[in-house]
Amino acid sequence: MSTNPKDKDKIEQYARALIEAGRAEGRSNADLVQWMHAQKFSPEVLEVLGSMRQSDDLDLLDAVSKEYKEILDHGDDTVSVTVTTAVPMDDALRSKVRAKATADLNAPVYLVERVDPSILGGIILEQRGKRYDASVRAQLSNIRKSLSSTFIGVEDDE
Predict the structure, then answer these.
(1) Count of CB atoms situated within 10 Å of the CB of 19
(2) What is the distance of C-alpha 27 from the center of its chain?
(3) What angle do CA 54, 59, 60 make, to 5 degrees?
(4) What is the pTM of this model?
(5) Among 108, 113, 140, CA closest to 126
(6) Cα-flanking dihedrals φ and ψ of residue 24, to 5°?
(7) What digits encode the pLDDT tens for the residues 111-149?
(8) Quick one: pLDDT at residue 40?
(9) HEC string of the chain?
């Protein structure tokens, strides 16, 4: 089966998502065996497959499987970092995020970009099971909590 060149990024993204999910629990090779034999799927594998189905990319399963194995066989220590922004990142921001994440993690970084307008602005980074939320939505939520806790128990003088 010949793979469309425009699908190469999707294939790698799906494969890396599966690897990252397996690494989080120390079982990346086990997930590949599970996936290839369709016996027992972890929630993370099901999430990736669901995402592939939603994007109508199930025809890429074979190519994702091969990419998954290729990445594992080469001992790739690349860390997948999911970056969520309210609008798509431009090249300048993408470069800054990649450079900062690479320096912080001391490892090569693969960016998985997501756009979620509901965060209003700012950025959310997720890597190695940790989440750093610097979104406007999170900041507004923190302000709301702070203000509500400040005024609890204050009596009205009227």
Answers:
(1) 22
(2) 18
(3) 90
(4) 0.58
(5) 113
(6) -60, -30
(7) 989 999 999 999 999 988 889 999 999 999 989 888 887
(8) 65
(9) CCCCHHHHHHHHHHHHHHHHHHHHCCCHHHHHHHHHHCCCCCHHHHHHHHHHHHCCCHHHHHHHHHHHHHHHHCCCCCEEEEEEECCCCCHHHHHHHHHHHHHHHCCCEEEEEEECHHHCCEEEEEECCEEEEEEHHHHHHHHHHHHHHHCCCCCCCC
Mean pLDDT of 47-71: 87
* Higher-confidence position of 142 and 1: 142
Closest alpha carbon to 19 in 82, 93, 76, 103: 76
Measure the CA–CA gap between 64 and 80, rounded to whole angstroms.
16
Residue 81 pairs in a beta bridge with 111
Mean pLDDT, range 76-94, rounded to an integer: 92
